[in-house]
Amino acid sequence: MPKIVLLCFLTLCSIGFVHSKELPDFTGLVEQYGEAVVNISTVQTQQITGNQIFPEIPNIPEDSPFYEFFRRYMHPFSGPKKYESKSLGSGFIISKDGYILTNAHVVEAANQINVRLTDKREFNAQVIGTDRKTDVALIKIDAKDLPVVTQGDPEKLKVGEWVIAIGSPFGFENSVTAGIVSAKGRSLAQESYVPFIQTDVAINPGNSGGPLFNMTGEVVGINSQIYSRTGGFMGLSFAIPINVATEIATQLKEHGKVSRGKIGIMIQEMTEELAESFGLSQARGALVVSVEKDGPADKAGIEVKDVILKFDGKDIAVSSDLPRLVGNTKPKSKVPVQVWRDSATKNLTVLVGEMPTDEGDRSRKQSKAPDTSNPLGLALNELSDKQKKQLGIENGLLVEEVQGGIANRAGIRQGDIILGFNSQDVTTVKQFNQLLSKVEKGRNIALLIKRGDMTTFITMKLDN
């Protein structure tokens, strides 16, 4: 009996030894490439007034018995004050003379940027450029002969492959976490220009902007964001492919901005039901729901209800493929486009335009307060001519606030643009409320929404 027990014990030990031999060893990778990862801390100075600190303090008249009290004890807070907010992030060195890649949200609007190397040296950094649409930023420190990362090819990544992240979660510098590639080419809401790499690598606040390495020590992505209900890691993290980031960094370095193509359309995802109604054998392509008048698409002959199947010879499997392809196309390029119209394919050629660098800037400095007099729970405001031009639209209402209720349950967000109510374009808040007042309770309505570079219908039912 003891011999049998001993044999089983030795067998289990040998199995455990074999399994341990199969587990990856990250030590050499971290030792060789970890020194090119940096910690980034920023300071942002904001000016606030006393009313922002104590909004409940009234204007006290001089003949009030409380005037002397407020004059003595509240006066120090009545004038403008400076407030400093600090944040942490990560980055990695891409050139020996000090160019560093990180996330735009890490350094944007910062008054001071401090970069700390693994050897404890610290430098003030200069922002070369940022790109909100991809969340990529290029910064530079004044240093020479720095350690640099080796850039890999994200296209060669395989789902299930081991990857590691190095960064400063919660300020803990040079922390290493590991996991696998969960998926590739992920599309996220309001992120039309990045085919994200999804991983289960632990990413937390402070990891943003840090590198994602493959097992050969090559950087394949920039850790950018997580999906979380708690603010901390929950098994879903997303990285910007390094080839996307490098292209952005090159443009920022050479021109200080990013030039993107634009054809002037709004699109919607194809569903099986829509595909069947359009006579398509499968749900693919991007359904055109709006065409900018006299824009590149309009001049090329693209029409509302066309389904774009190919752009520049590349298949459009899902609608989110199209903004990336168009955005990555050099302005003034002539590009072939294949559309599905009247149950047949049609080949067109579009002369790609250029997207304004400030497109999508939704200034909230309106001449009047938002109108909140509708039962959907929406605070709406009309767009200025400048805003319409920047957004490339002719009509629409800005959602200033979602105050709960029907619209909130349906998924309407602050900053959305309402372009249409059922089949009608909307231009004024008064018109919107008039259309809404004619809908019977318990009936469905469909709002055409522009969110970032995506356009879609959102349906909701009026409460009984």
TrEMBL record:
Transmembrane segments: none annotated. Its EC number is 3.4.21.107. One of its GO terms (biological process) is proteolysis. Residues 1-20 form the signal peptide. It catalyses: Acts on substrates that are at least partially unfolded. The cleavage site P1 residue is normally between a pair of hydrophobic residues, such as Val-|-Val. SUPFAM superfamilies: PDZ domain-like, Trypsin-like serine proteases. Substrate binds at H105, D135, G206, N207, S208. SMART domains: PDZ (SM00228). Gene3D superfamilies: 2.30.42.10, 2.40.10.120. It holds the Pfam family PDZ_2. It comes from the Bacteria. GO terms for molecular function: serine-type endopeptidase activity. Residues 247-316, 371-453 form the PDZ domain. Its main location: periplasm. Belongs to the peptidase S1C family. Residues 353-377 are annotated as: Disordered. One of its GO terms (cellular component) is periplasmic space. The active site is at H105, D135, S208. It is found in: Periplasm. This is Probable periplasmic serine endoprotease DegP-like. Keywords: Hydrolase, Periplasm, Protease, Repeat, Serine protease, Signal, Stress response. It comes from Nitrosomonas communis.
